[in-house]
Design goal:
The protein is an alpha/beta fold and 659 residues long. It is built from 21 helices and 30 strands. The strands form 8 sheets. An 8-stranded mixed beta sheet has the order 12-11-8-6-7-14-15-23, with helices on both faces. The longest helix has 17 residues. Bound molecules: 5'-O-[(S)-ethoxy(hydroxy)phosphoryl]adenosine (WTA).
């Protein structure tokens, strides 16, 4: 936990105001009776059968929850199922094969593709057969390093079909990041592509993948999707296979979905933590799939006839849960967009909503803040009346942005759900149910039915309404991570030590977020309390950033903090001490920025690099990040008397102000 005190968390609280869910929405909502909270409470953990009932089981489970080996919980014990069957076959068996599963919208305005359930089924089967031919066996981890192209969900579902867990690495991550993840997962297979479009220009992605593979310490078989055709030439090297050729040579192949145990791994997803090494979060087949199907139904109000759109990238958990698995398990149409919201014009998203009659839109506060800045003239150019629900995820949303979204995108007719959750939780945890709860801008809402989340002080006691504290979850849930890949010890250390009482076998999950709770039990999440930044809704560990910076020649020491940013929420501020003989000049600044982009990716690019002769440290030698944050944010500096070197603070402050 950081040195941030509860008093400082208070400063992040928004003002209060509330809105009732629109009646037109309530009348048709999947969940509209508030009795659901009580039903789940009285019937816990069996209430989760309701989630499990949304999917098809090959063999029924014997027990809903096994907590004998807590916190290594098991859900839907001995149940057998296949995720790909649930996302494809069963909808076709129900006669819905001709309906659209994925509406893919390319960045170039003339490129779109509709995958029906039948079409998606066919390609998934063909690619699953190809993966098998390549030697992929059940439980082999297949890495995907791909942008938002349809072959990504195809590859994920093909893996699920043959029981091979996937590990998707965000395409914006660097070659180094790919290598680290492939090494950590012992992954011997990679699916990637030649490149993709960014703002009209073809971008070479294969080069980056190849560079990454140089850092992988074992042999890898690679599949390359030819996304760009003539716009970018590429050659295939040894152990590289062309995706289209593989699929064509397996034309018409059918692959029996492999029977998976409920607790078998469906996928791994790496995320940033407080130490340098990313954490391989393990999600399972039965619990995860049930949970994302349930939350898609209850919170996103997904119905089979909807055209639902989550604008996240599949390279993050939001895309896994709410572009791919949740919506497809429910048999709806899920939209996938390749490009950015401002290409070719700042109305691109609204054009897509209009063209496809999108019914739900799920996006991030950082995007909403950008829309707000661009102005309402862009959404006003389009008919957005097909929208029925709006959602946000990834970071706290300020009430102003919430209200703008509600008014200018939803026309005050759509509930806005502010959903708090994490890579580790698999699915949504804290949010209003859109057909039930009143909405309070800036506050996510109560924990979902069956979820027990609290806000506590440092000793674990619940705080008074209005006081800031730490968010905790004291009961397990089906979508929870099961462990960190091959690292049970770190799993316990990271999440289960702060507030659990091991001797009493009482396990409390600590998500490392600060929060407050009001009289109605609404939780406002205030942000991370560990050394993790949230830049545009993306988690970045300060340790990862610092080690990237210290790896640059000429840098002796570095401290990274988050500075407030209008659009990104938080931006990376790097305080750097140079090595003797090196100047803190433009050249070094550029090399630092480049070093961070190489080690992590452009999303981690430092907004400011501040050269300083010293860093403020406590007498025990710990860097006082809080002071550096205050400086970055232009705030009044707190008490500096506990510092070993208080004089350095003014120097740094003058430097930043002088910038
Ligand atoms: C933050 C993204 C406030 C939080 C699904 C959490 C939020 C981290 C919200 C997880 C929200 C996510 N309000 N903060 N509605 N949703 N966060 O793993 O700090 O990429 O711990 O998962 O994002 O980020 P992750």
């Amino acid at each position: 936990m950081s040195e941030e005190s509860e008093g400082e968390l208070e400063a992040r609280l928004p003002e209060g105001e509330s809105f009732e869910p629109p009646q037109s929405f309530v009348e048709q909502a999947n969940v509209s009776d508030e009795a659901i909270y009580e039903e789940f409470e009285e019937n816990w953990p069996d209430c989760w059968e309701r989630a499990a009932d949304l999917i098809d089981w090959e063999e029924p489970y014997d027990q809903v929850l096994d907590d004998d080996d807590a916190p290594f919980y098991e859900w839907f014990v001995d149940g057998k199922l296949n995720a790909s069957y649930n996302c494809l076959d069963r909808h076709i068996e129900a006669g819905r094969g001709d309906e659209a599963a994925i509406e893919w919208v390319g960045e170039p305005t003339d490129e779109t593709q509709t995958y029906t359930y039948e079409g998606l089924y066919r390609e998934v089967n063909e690619f699953a057969a190809a993966l098998r031919d390549m030697g992929v066996e059940e439980d082999d981890v297949v890495t995907m390093y791909m942008p938002m192209i349809p072959e990504l969900p195809v590859a994920m579902l093909a893996c699920a079909r043959i029981g091979a867990p996937h590990s998707v690495v965000f395409a914006g991550f660097s070659a180094d990041a790919l290598a680290t993840r492939m090494n950590s997962a012992d992954s011997e297979y990679l699916v990637t592509c030649d490149g993709y479009f960014r703002r009209g220009d073809p971008l070479n992605h294969k080069e980056k993948a190849e560079e990454g593979l140089e850092g992988v310490d074992h042999e890898v078989e690679t599949v390359v999707v030819d996304r760009l055709g003539e716009d970018l030439d590429h050659d295939l090297r040894d152990a590289e296979h062309d995706y289209d050729d593989l699929v064509a040579s397996n034309a018409g192949a059918e692959v029996e979905p492999v029977t998976r145990d409920a607790e078998d791994m469906l996928f791994l997803m790496y995320t940033s933590g407080t130490t340098g090494q990313p954490k391989g979060v393990k999600h399972t087949t039965g619990g995860y799939l049930s949970y994302v199907a349930w939350t898609s139904q209850a919170v996103l109000d997904v119905k089979p006839d909807d055209t639902y759109w989550c604008s996240a990238d599949i390279g993050w958990i939001t895309g896994h849960s709410y572009i791919v698995y949740g919506p497809l398990a429910l048999g709806t149409t899920t939209v996938m967009y390749e490009g950015t919201p401002d290409y070719p014009e700042k109305d691109r998203l609204w054009e897509i909503v209009d063209d496809y009659d999108v019914t739900q839109l799920y996006t991030a506060p950082t995007a909403i803040r950008a829309f707000m800045k661009w102005g309402e003239q862009y959404p006003e150019q389009h008919d957005l009346s097909s929208l029925r629900l709006l959602g946000t995820v990834g970071e706290p949303i300020n009430p102003r942005a919430w209200k703008w979204y509600y008014k200018h995108i939803g026309d005050e007719e759509c509930p806005v759900i502010d959903t708090w959750w994490q890579t580790e939780t698999g699915g949504m945890m804290v949010t209003t149910l859109p057909g039930v709860g009143e909405m309070k801008p800036g506050s996510a809402g109560p924990p979902l039915p069956g979820i027990s989340a609290n806000v506590v002080d440092m000793s674990g006691d619940e705080v008074q309404p209005g006081e800031a504290g730490y968010l905790t979850v004291d009961r397990p849930w089906p979508g929870m991570l099961r462990t960190l890949y091959k690292n049970d010890e770190r799993f316990i250390d990271e999440y289960w030590t702060e507030y659990s009482d091991e001797d009493a076998d009482e396990w409390v999950y600590f998500p490392e977020d600060g929060a407050k709770i009001d009289e109605d039990g609404y939780i406002t999440v205030l942000g991370r309390v560990d050394d993790v930044l949230n830049v545009s809704g993306h988690r970045l560990g300060t340790m990862e950033l610092e080690s990237a910076i210290v790896g640059v020649e000429g840098v002796a020491e570095a401290a990274v903090v988050g500075g407030k940013h209008d659009i990104k929420g938080e931006a990376v501020y790097a305080y750097v001490i140079t090595e003797d003989g090196y100047e803190g000049d433009e050249g070094l600044r550029d090399r630092i920025v480049e070093g961070v982009e190489d080690a992590i990716g452009p999303i981690a690019r430092p907004e400011e690099v501040i050269f300083t002769p010293e860093l403020p440290k406590t007498r025990s030698g710990k860097i006082m990040r809080r002071l550096l944050e205050d400086i970055a944010n232009g705030e009044e500096l707190g008490n500096t008397s506990t510092l070993r070197n208080p004089e350095v603070v003014r120097d740094i402050e003058n430097k930043v102000r002088g910038d």
